[in-house]
């Protein structure tokens, strides 16, 4: 829930309160229910509130704890806040609200930066110590909640979204060649701390940053699962692992029902979202609101999976809502979805999520979503290729399997002024894969995906698109205890049954067989994938705009080649190559970057 921002000065000056106000106002879609500002000394904090827990004004932010002389802003949800509040009360703390934000402040007062290790949830927060002038920034273990940073001489600004930082002004908006290389190589994934803008960085997941009043800082990495087998698990059977996964998922789903408002489910009809519905039904949830979206067919490709979502909704008796989007609505929705992106995202379903979130937000404020299961339980088709690679060849196999194009191919795509002089994306993967703590090539690939690709593609996509409508999406498959369990689960159990085998086995305990055994589906948006007329018109307009010509990111011959056959040029992973370059340019223009 919510959006946060702020500024700390290191040069003896006061924060630019007008800039913090602009940043706060740009976060309004993330928090339509309240607005607050706080400033003391060299620090200013801004907040937009989405009321999920403690709907009274006692939960308003920025929040100050007079006893601890700390003030803070918080985005997300600590699912075990009631248990922590009881523990803190036993330690002598007194509470004036029923909010999880106050629990975060009291927990910091009691345990310092180690408080994050006690939180079960998704969060980003900033806490200012009034006595010392120190600022503490933190992000949850899986990076579900974002936190962007912009340094300038004498100051640091931070916000829940990149557009919020732009609204504050004074940001270096030149392109970062390393990040651009990753964008073009890694299916638009740009690993923290980078973004495509040289002047904006992001706090890595599972990180606490302590910023001193003079500008020095240090980071604490507080969580990292091990992808090696444990001796105590050696005797576990496939059924034991199935039961352990089902129990852990059941706990994760139950945790994410904590709210003072109703919680719904985004139901695609696939295994992952259907499992969430099934487990909520097992928990006794009645009249559960479920939501599905579909699109008109294009290029002979079906655009909806309603037959499956309808089947699950009927089986569990949910209050189901179905949204069918005509193709001409996709093109008109593009710009709004791109405006909601903190970073350029090329996945077709970004528009789907934005359109779906718009409708869902009219019914509920909180939903559970099935994102993350494929990355955690090896559900994608490329994971078997990784499994056959030796540990020593893990990086090479990953790049060959997952990258959109090789470094040598970029010389004909990017102009020399923005092209990195060596394979920086490949180097990143090699360095990550070489780290200890992953037993096999598949373990190393799953670790890389969980720590980087998952955070900066599907998780970011869902957060940006839902929060743009004041809708909080919770992702039980990214419960950190479930992720830890999946990390040590034997690779063969994850790869079995065509992928996600152990999860499918769990699904057979609670779902109709046809849902578990159906072909794997995706979230298709054919009008984007096949460059339908109105979408292609928007693409041509963006790539021929004066801003694009002045920017000069892409080689003219390459752009002309793609535009001559818009639906024919595919990256190595099968993505539409024209859409990849056009999306970046549209994103830059939408956010006023020249």
Automatic annotation (TrEMBL):
The keyword Transferase applies. GO terms for biological process: asparagine biosynthetic process. It comes from Streptomyces phaeolivaceus. Its EC number is 6.3.5.4. Coiled coil: none annotated. GO terms for molecular function: asparagine synthase (glutamine-hydrolyzing) activity; ATP binding; transferase activity. ATP binds at residues 266, 293, 369-370. Keywords: Amino-acid biosynthesis, Asparagine biosynthesis, ATP-binding, Glutamine amidotransferase, Nucleotide-binding, Transferase. It catalyses: L-aspartate + L-glutamine + ATP + H2O = L-asparagine + L-glutamate + AMP + diphosphate + H(+). This is asparagine synthase (glutamine-hydrolyzing). Residues 2-214 form the Glutamine amidotransferase type-2 domain. InterPro entries: Asn_synth_AEB (IPR006426), Asn_synthase (IPR001962), ASN_synthetase/amidase (IPR051786), AsnB_N (IPR033738), Asparagine_synth (IPR017535), GATase_2_dom (IPR017932), Ntn_hydrolases_N (IPR029055), Rossmann-like_a/b/a_fold (IPR014729). The active site is at residue 2. Belongs to the asparagine synthetase family. One of its GO terms (cellular component) is cytosol.
